[in-house]
Each structure stands twice: as C-alpha cells, then as structure tokens.
C-alpha cells in the first residue's frame, strides 16, 4: 500500500485497502491456533470479541480490571476453548507488560498475533466541572479526573506499543496467522462528538488518530516480514453495562441502541480478511456495520458520516 499521487498532484496518504465488503461471507477458519489478547474482555463488547475469537479456535487472553473476568474465562474454558484471564489495569504500563508476557506464554508456540483494545470508560460531563468546584470565590479549582483519558487513550497507546514490540519478538513463532493485527475500539464519538464529554470525545478522536498513524506502515516489522494490519471499530450506543443507566433516557429521546452481536460481526469482518487494512467500521443499530470511508478520497470519513447520520442513526 504505497504512497500515491493523485491527478491533482496531491499526495495520498491513505495507506488503506478498499472499503469493507459487507456482502462477503465471513470465514473464521484462519483464526484457529492464533494467539489473541483482548483488553476489556470481561464483559460487553470486549467479551463479545474474546468469545468470537475463542470459538474460532484462537488462544485468547482476556485482560480486565474487573475480577468477574475470571469467572467468564472459566466458563469459556469449560467448553473446551483456550481462554485465560489476567487481571490488570490498562492504565499501568507494568500491568499491561505482564499481561502481554502471559498471553505469549499461554500460546503453545509462544506467539502473539492479534491485539484488541476494548477497555474503555464513559466520559464525565463538563457540567460536573462547575458543580464540583469550590463555592468559595477565592479557592482554586480542583484538578479534573483523567481516568477516561488514561484508560481509553493512554491504555490503548500502551497496548499498541507492547503489541508492536511483541509482534516483532514473536515474528518467527509457528502460527496460522498470515499477518499480525491490531484492532482498536473507538466510538462514533470519535467522528461526531457528544456534547460536553470532552474527555470521552478527546480519547476516541485520539484512538482514531493512532489508527491512522499505524495504518501508514503495514511493513512496520520489516520488509519481507509479516504485515501489521490495523483496523478500527467505532460503535454507537451498544446495550452493555456501560450505558445500562442511560437506556431509559435514550429510549425517551428516540435514539436506537445496537447490540454486542452487531459489533462482533463488524469485528470478524476485519479480523478474518487479510485484504482489509486501515479501515474504520461503524456499528449502528438495525443494520449492523458499515465502512466509515475514513480516507482522503471520501473527505476523511465526511461522506461516510453523512450517510450514516442521515440514513441510519436518524433516518431509520
């Protein structure tokens, strides 16, 4: 995917494959025997991804701060699937480092092939900045929490760094993988910002920016080596524990909610297709996934977002 120059002389830095074909049949056979690490895999979207990988025959390491991931991993393992749980806070470099090492040890040939960054937190409304500040006019403001940015953005950055490092270290390990993969989980809020959620929007726009940086060099591990395929999943509101307290308000506002299964379908389309690289998949209710067209040809997802908003999010 070399750099090209358009007829107008403008350098095209897309470095991405053509848009994902959603009419294509998904074949998960190639995932069997691969080694995958999924952050935020104890519940919600991350659990959906981890389960899909395990059911396809991959060796899956679930990384999550919540201890209920242990029970979930054991349930999957009881079905004969290759799954382990590592409790770790993605905000901690050392914790992630140990999780990555455990994932490599868990695989029969000590490989690492797929890294999925699904750990995430919801944002804090800027209204809270006023409500929680001192009423004394002479007092200094309290520092804001950075948890959302630390988990969603810094945690993903750590995961990417470790993924590239261990992809290079395990490049010659025997595995069925034709390429190494990073699948970043962002949000449609990384394209159409949500009101007042500065930390959440900023973190998701940031994850999108990291995808664009990564996709520019699929030969990151060296010429003639396995490529690093990078893709992004951008869900809208999905029925998970994260938004459970907001479902009533969303229903009142007439805002449809998607299902984890919709996310899994889009995820499998990018993770199983060696021809897909540098694409962003939007997950919206009712009709599942669609390609965001996040490239220069389509005005940096401008066309894709317009079609999505008019045709599916609000157009039925």
UniProtKB/TrEMBL annotation:
The keyword NADP applies. SUPFAM superfamilies: NAD(P)-binding Rossmann-fold domains. One of its GO terms (cellular component) is cytoplasm. One of its GO terms (molecular function) is oxidoreductase activity, acting on the CH-OH group of donors, NAD or NADP as acceptor. The keyword Secreted does not apply. Keywords: NADP, Oxidoreductase. Belongs to the short-chain dehydrogenases/reductases (SDR) family. This is NAD(P)-binding protein. It comes from Eremomyces bilateralis CBS 781.70. The lineage of its organism: Eukaryota, Fungi, Dikarya, Ascomycota, Pezizomycotina.
């Amino acid at each position: 995917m070399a750099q090209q120059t358009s007829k107008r002389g403008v350098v095209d830095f897309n470095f991405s494959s053509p848009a994902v074909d959603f009419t294509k049949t998904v074949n998960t056979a190639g995932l069997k025997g691969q080694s995958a690490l999924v952050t935020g895999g104890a519940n919600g979207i991350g659990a959906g991804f981890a389960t899909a990988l395990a059911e396809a025959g991959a060796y899956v390491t679930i990384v999550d701060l919540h201890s209920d991931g242990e029970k979930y991993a054991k349930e999957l393992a009881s079905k004969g699937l290759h799954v382990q749980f590592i409790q770790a806070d993605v905000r901690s470099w050392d914790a992630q480092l140990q999780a990555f090492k455990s994932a490599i040890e868990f695989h029969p040939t000590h490989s690492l092939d797929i890294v999925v960054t699904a750990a995430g937190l919801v944002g804090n409304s800027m209204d809270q900045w006023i409500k929680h500040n001192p009423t004394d006019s002479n007092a200094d403001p309290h520092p804001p929490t950075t948890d959302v940015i630390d988990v969603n953005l810094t945690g993903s950055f750590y995961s990417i760094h470790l993924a590239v490092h261990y992809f290079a270290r395990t490049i010659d390990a025997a595995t069925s993988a034709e390429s190494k993969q990073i699948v970043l989980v962002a949000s449609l809020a990384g394209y159409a910002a949500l009101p007042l959620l500065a930390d959440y929007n900023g973190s998701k726009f940031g994850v999108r920016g990291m995808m664009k940086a990564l996709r520019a060099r699929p030969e990151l591990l060296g010429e003639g080596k396995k490529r690093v395929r990078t893709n992004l999943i951008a869900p809208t509101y999905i029925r998970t524990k994260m938004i459970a307290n907001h479902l009533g308000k969303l229903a009142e506002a007439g805002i449809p909610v998607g299902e984890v299964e919709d996310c899994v379908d889009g995820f499998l389309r990018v993770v199983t297709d060696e021809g897909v690289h540098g694409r962003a998949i939007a997950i919206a209710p009712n009709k599942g996934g669609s390609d965001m067209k996040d490239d220069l040809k389509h005005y940096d997802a401008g066309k894709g977002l317009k079609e999505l908003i008019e045709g599916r999010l609000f157009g039925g």
